[in-house]
Amino acid sequence: MPEITILTEADLRAVVGLGDDERRAIEAVYPVISAGRAAMPPIMRIDVPAHHGEIDIKSAHLPGWPGIAIKVSAGFFDNPARGLPSLGGLMVVLDAETGVPLAALFDNGHLTDLRTALAGAVAADHLARRDARRVAVLGAGVQARLQVLALAHVRTIEHLTVWGRRGDRAAALATDLGDELGVAVAVADTPADAARDADVLVTTTPSTEPLVTVDMLHPGLHVTAIGSDAEHKQELAAEVVRDADRFVCDETGQSGRLGELRAARAAGFAVDVVELGAVIAGDAHGRTGPDDVTVCDLTGTGAQDTAIASLAVERCAAAGTGTTLAT
Amino acid sequence: MPEITILTEADLRAVVGLGDDERRAIEAVYPVISAGRAAMPPIMRIDVPAHHGEIDIKSAHLPGWPGIAIKVSAGFFDNPARGLPSLGGLMVVLDAETGVPLAALFDNGHLTDLRTALAGAVAADHLARRDARRVAVLGAGVQARLQVLALAHVRTIEHLTVWGRRGDRAAALATDLGDELGVAVAVADTPADAARDADVLVTTTPSTEPLVTVDMLHPGLHVTAIGSDAEHKQELAAEVVRDADRFVCDETGQSGRLGELRAARAAGFAVDVVELGAVIAGDAHGRTGPDDVTVCDLTGTGAQDTAIASLAVERCAAAGTGTTLAT
């Protein structure tokens, strides 16, 4: 009799977080992507314009990984008026050897939040200066918070600056993170103010207009752009992508369609692109010295979903959490 | 607190079958597809060559339908050696207004089997002669069986002929269906023998070579081709598609990529294609008289999955079946 394990957000929060093992699990998938060994189809997207909704489906098979995750992300932007969160989702995990469903993860998007934050930490770990101390984040939502917390595992943060469209939310996030991490904090009035003294700048907004312009680049800066994951989104001016000493992305095709590479190419700029996996594998250089400006665009991949879901399922099984049903 | 309903194959078998309401639910989606009102992205496919596996993901949003199904089909062809079925799958249903997950349906592919059989009955209902009495089926598997049972709801079957690659399985299926439907049966030695006196011929095989050739067409015949759902599959010779008085398909783009239209176009034949939804809606003619040869190619659509899953979830809710968990 086949069995399926049902895992809730609470089950998952109890076993996976932003720790080193989780980050290494995410790090491990990038070389697989860059070597062309991940079976990772383009994102499937279903638009529901009547309710300002969109559903994205991602998946990937990674040779050697025990499971294949299929991740459903829903963004329905009329939801707040109904008292519901805009973003949600779930994952299902199939046995990679038999295709048999193993688990359904009703995480309400939490695993996506985690793997996205962990990816930011992986990018910074490989591309930011070793002595980076000053961090700035654009955006004041869940992802801004998680990016900073994940980054604190790979660099010693001494100062954090937050910029957000809503100053009150930026101030609240800065206060929270200052308390949690024990670091000095500031709230910036503009993205330029946030970027000015930063060693690491992380952009986490759904902006459709560039927030980071080329005049904000300064020697030694590393920028990780998280927000753009659709054709109409953009956080970095095309010139930022062009003028960085190194432009890195998680998956070139996707960055060109949905990420920061899109606008740069549309502007006619020839960009020398290297994938994060090639940098991690040592097949391509990242930062070559303390004064380089590095930029990493992360659009988010099904491979990360398969990695975090596989880890979560394994840990829940070890801990005996979840509900198992005969199907 | 959000809740999710978990439905097993047994839960689903108890509430949905091959009845008239189910068929009408499937019939209703075709005009939506043909009017261009379904948001139905191309099938997402993940190949797992190390285990002779493939995963197909289908989905569709139909305006006015309460749910959006995301259907995962797995075919892992090393499974029989492990004592597992080759084919399986599951569906999840999201609320079409909010994107919130409503239900996970661990149906092991049963709902796909049903909606595919119901689609065959819809096609025959609209395209076969009203007085069709003699049915032939190529293939002797689950889908062959279900196609005949569904067809019995729309035409009065008096005689059934089964052809299968394995004669023993064809004989067993013929005997079973003869008993179940109370009709005369025969087993054919060749596809041509099966087709000879048929009013309705249904092809349900994974063949990669044409089984139905143009010499088998005779006045009044209706052919429904179910099997081809991938680039390498083909049940009908290209000339069959060309020479039919009417060639109908469920979705033109998909039939051209994965169905019987592909080989006909590759042969350079100009095929006058009409979608089943246009025939159902009365926007295009189907059969114009008793001697027409009609052909319908069904590749299977996410819209059908959304229709059958929505009906199943509604019926399980009304019956109070399934397991509800807080997420």
Descriptive account of the structure:
Two copies of one chain form a homodimer. Chain A is an alpha/beta fold. Helices cover 35% and strands 25% of the residues of chain A. Chain A is built from twelve helices and 15 strands. In chain A, the strands form two sheets. Chain A has an eight-stranded parallel β-sheet. In chain A, a hairpin with a 5-residue loop joins β5 (87-95) and β6 (101-106). In chain A, α2 crosses α4 (110-127) and α9 (252-258) crosses α10 (260-266). The longest helix of chain A is centred in the middle third of the chain and has 18 residues, at 110-127. The radius of gyration of chain A is 19 Å and the shape is globular. The N and C termini of chain A lie close together (7 Å). The model of chain A has no long low-confidence stretch (mean pLDDT 96). Chains A and B meet through β1, β2, β3, β4 and β5 of A and β1, β2, β3, β4 and β5 of B.
